[in-house]
C-alpha cells in the first residue's frame, strides 16, 4: 500500500451553519464544496487548508454514524483520511495482516471518491478512512 497524502480531517459538528461561521469568519477559510451524502446520513462542507481539506460533518440522522458519534462523544475530530494509490489492494493487505476493517470493499463517499474505513481498535483509537480519488 502506498499512502499518497492526508486527504482530509473529518470533524463531527452539531450545526453546520454555526461551524462554518467559525471556520470561515474566525479562521478565514473558505467553504468550497457542500454536499448531502444520504447513504451516510450526512451534510458535508469542505474547507481547503493547505494540501488537505477540513470536512465538517453534520448528521442528518441521530442513528447514523456521525449522529451516534456526537451522542457518545460530542462534536470533534471524527476521522483522519489518507489517500492511497490502490484502495482495494490496501484493504486486502490490511485484512491479510489481521487488521479489523469496517469496510471490506470500497464504497462511494463524498465527492464521488471510493472510500473505506479501518476500525479505530486497529489504529490506536483513531478512525482511519482510506480513499482513492479519480485521476
Characterize the structure shown.
- With 135 residues, this protein is of the alpha+beta class.
- It has a single domain (3-132), classed as 2,3-Dihydroxybiphenyl 1,2-Dioxygenase, domain 1 (Roll), CATH 3.10.180.
- It is 22% helix and 41% strand.
- The protein has three helices and eight strands.
- The protein has an eight-stranded mixed sheet.
- A hairpin with a 5-residue loop joins strand 6 and strand 7.
Short précis:
The protein contains 3 helices and 8 strands, in the order βαβββαβαβββ. It is of the alpha+beta class and 135 residues long.
Defining key terms:
globular, 2,3-Dihydroxybiphenyl 1,2-Dioxygenase, domain 1, 135 residues, eight-stranded mixed beta sheet, alpha+beta, 41% strand, 8 strands, 3 helices
Mean pLDDT: 94
Helix content: 10-25%
Which homologous superfamily in CATH is the superfamily? 2,3-Dihydroxybiphenyl 1,2-Dioxygenase, domain 1
- Give me the number of helical elements: 3
Oligomer: single chain
Low-confidence stretches at least 5 residues in length (pLDDT < 50)? none
Straight-line N-to-C gap = 17 Å
Using the coordinates shown, work out and report the CATH topology. Answer: 2,3-Dihydroxybiphenyl 1,2-Dioxygenase, domain 1
CATH architecture grouping: Roll
* Structural class label: alpha+beta
Counting DSSP E segments of at least 2 residues, the number of strands comes to 8
What is the N-to-C order of secondary-structure elements (H for helix, E for strand)? EHEEEHEHEEE
Strand proportion: 35-45%
Amino acid at each position: 500500500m502506498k499512502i499518497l497524502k492526508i486527504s482530509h480531517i473529518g470533524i463531527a459538528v452539531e450545526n453546520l451553519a454555526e461551524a462554518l461561521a467559525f471556520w470561515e469568519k474566525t479562521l478565514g477559510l473558505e467553504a468550497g464544496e457542500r454536499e448531502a451524502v444520504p447513504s451516510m446520513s450526512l451534510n458535508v462542507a469542505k474547507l481547503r487548508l493547505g494540501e488537505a481539506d477540513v470536512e465538517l460533518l453534520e448528521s442528518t440522522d441521530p442513528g447514523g454514524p456521525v449522529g451516534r458519534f456526537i451522542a457518545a462523544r460530542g462534536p470533534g475530530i471524527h476521522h483522519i483520511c489518507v489517500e492511497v494509490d490502490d484502495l482495494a489492494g490496501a484493504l486486502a493487505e490490511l485484512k491479510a495482516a489481521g487488521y479489523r476493517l469496517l469496510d471490506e470493499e470500497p464504497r462511494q463517499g463524498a465527492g464521488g471518491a471510493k472510500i473505506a474505513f479501518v476500525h479505530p481498535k486497529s489504529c490506536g483509537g483513531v478512525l482511519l478512512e482510506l480513499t482513492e480519488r479519480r485521476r
